[in-house]
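One thing: can you check what follows?
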Amino acid sequence: MNRNLYLAISTVLIVMTIIGFTFVSSVARQSVASADDAKNVITVNGEGVIKAKPDMAYINLGVETKGKTAKEAQDSNADTMGKVIQALKGMGITENDIRTTNYNIYPEQYFDDKTNQSKISGYHVTNMVEVTVRDVDKVGSVIDATGNAGANIMYGVSFTISDNSAYYQQALQLAAKDARSKAEGIAKGLGVNLGTPLRIVEQSNSGGTVYNINQSQAMKAGGTPITSGELEIKAQITVDYSF
């Protein structure tokens, strides 16, 4: 082999060996450093809760009618639902706050022993709407007014806050303080100094409650007592602290 070629190949091999050794050493040092960092971490969860009064409610109600024919059941339903919608408008509910959520037509069947066949005896029609009430003090009155107008299905009432962002920010601050307090307690128990946060993860937020009102409650003459109470706005975070 040519002497110059031999020297060139030898030089390349030596350089590659040095580079490989340097790379492996660097990775090893990083792995050790990462392992050391992982050991010096306190992980805690923090939760903050703010209570606030709701300012809006949703009511799910509807009308169910029966008839010998589908048209008869439809016409009866349309007439009654028209009265329900007029009652809602009379309570100050706008059309934009009345949304149809379900409309069904289905037959009522029975089994004829003489012919061994199923036969249709009539039809059912249901029309459901979701009503947005922007004054929670009117919820009971709205239920009574629609019941008197002919609404005979009531699925439930839910209360909410139209804009809970300010409350959620307060809940986040409480969650951060809660996490810090827990981490300080752990660090004190271990006899170490608590460092700065290495990682903060926002977990979730929530707010809202549902009150189910059955038909007998909704239709009673004495008025339907509905109380909105307070809603809880929660914030949860996970924090990694160094020590």
